[in-house]
Amino acid sequence: MTVAAPVPAPDHTADTPPVISMRDVSKYFDDFQALKSVSFDVQKGERVVVCGPSGSGKSTLIRCINRLEAHEAGEIMVEGTTLDDTRASLDQIRGAVGMVFQQFNLFPHLTVLQNLTLGPRRVLGLSEEEARKRAMTYLERVQIPDQAEKFPRQLSGGQQQRVAIARSLCMEPRIMLFDEPTSALDPEMIAEVLEVMTELADSGMTMIVVTHEMGFARRVADRMVFMDKGEIVETGTPEAFFTAPKSQRCATFLQQILNH
């Protein structure tokens, strides 16, 4: 893969508004409170890795950012737009935010190329030729242009996840959310997906990544966020997070996952 020179990490001390802002956000599933008054900011170009034990609220956190889950209390803003149930709000925010899931969520009856061109044609109004050209550009970027005419079932899990990343990039989002993108992959396929994500991070894309891949987090993250029981317990630089966790909960989690 041809990797561009890494874009310098953003200056998070600068007086610029965050591209994502969450204030006192709470989310319930019936009687279970998945998020408990969470406040969280992400700056343009920042790469944030969110980790924590199963059921800690990590996936719910990022799914609330593009309204895949509706929060019951608090405020979420993306690029200055307040997220609510109006069509204008949802369209604007979902146009800015791409998402890659644990399961690849590809349409099995469509070819790889058709999976990639569907959104740009229907949502962005691109012509078939424009959509195809864009799709091939991003398939090149994730190193599988030769798979364009195949169906998802003909691909390995790692290839399918790279198609899913390319599909999100075809909408040209400014923010990317990743919800444990390697958890459904065999170990030998994880590296190829993490390589694509690292290249994307080096290009300067704003990213929030929910993952237990701590090697990737050390290399790529500007900031680590540790969640437990619906709360953000600790944040810090990767160096501080891995070498001197502030809370016992975080220290115990790291000991368990790094020794696994």
TrEMBL record:
PANTHER family from the UniProt entry = AMINO ACID IMPORT ATP-BINDING PROTEIN, PHOSPHONATES IMPORT ATP-BINDING PROTEIN PHNC
Its protein name is Glutamine transport ATP-binding protein GlnQ
Domain of life according to the entry: Bacteria
Query: Is ATP-binding among the key words of this record?
Result: yes
Protein family membership:
Belongs to the ABC transporter superfamily.
InterPro entries per the record?
A: AAA+_ATPase, ABC_ATPase_HisP-typ, ABC_transporter-like_ATP-bd, ABC_transporter-like_CS, MetN_ABC_transporter-like, P-loop_NTPase
Keyword Transport attributed: yes
Q: Which UniProt keywords apply?
A: ATP-binding, Nucleotide-binding, Transport
Q: Which organism is it from?
A: Thalassovita mediterranea
Q: Which SMART domains match?
A: AAA
Q: Can you name one GO molecular function term for this protein?
A: ABC-type amino acid transporter activity
ABC transporter domain: residues covered: 20-254
Q: Which PROSITE patterns match?
A: ABC_TRANSPORTER_1, ABC_TRANSPORTER_2
